[in-house]
Every structure is written in C-alpha cells, then in structure tokens.
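quick one before i forget lol
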Amino acid sequence: MMAFKSKKVLVLGGSRGIGAAIVRRFVADGASVTFTYSGSPDAAHALAAETGATAEKTDSADREAVIARLDALRAEIGRLPGPTTLDDLRADRARDDMA
C-alpha cells in the first residue's frame, strides 16, 4: 500500500521504540520521512540507513528547536498541510464539534 506516496512526513522523536516503528510504517506506505532524535545518534543513523529516511538532531523538549525544524520543513515544501500549531488543533476540534 502506498497511501503516503509523494507525501512528506515529520516524526518527532523517531529514532527508537514507537517513533522508529512510525518511521518504518510511513516509509513502507511511500512517504518521504524526516525524523528527529536527540540522545540516540547511533540508533538514528542506523534507522536512516535502513529506511532511507532523514535523521535530524532536534531536541523535542526544546520548543525553539522544534519550531526551527518546522520552519526548515516549511521552507523546503511550502505550507504544511493540516494543523501545525495548538491554535490550529483547537480550531480543527471546534469545527469537528460543530459538525
């Protein structure tokens, strides 16, 4: 199944455990995946080599670092689809509640 063919996906904290499983699944479904890592560079580089995904050192606990990563992704692909801020999420939920 190639449900995400030609789509770009950013996974925060994707080098190990559930995050790595998410990276593998999106890649298997055809996505071009970038994932962040902080404390596990060996695991991150191994996963990138295994899947063809891109590993970017970014501490997900550092708000400014995550914003910078999103800004870099926006610069690469343009507007990000879907909710990308808490305000966007709140607006989406409000629309869903009213439907």
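fyi Residues 8-98 form a domain with the Rossmann fold fold (CATH 3.40.50.720).
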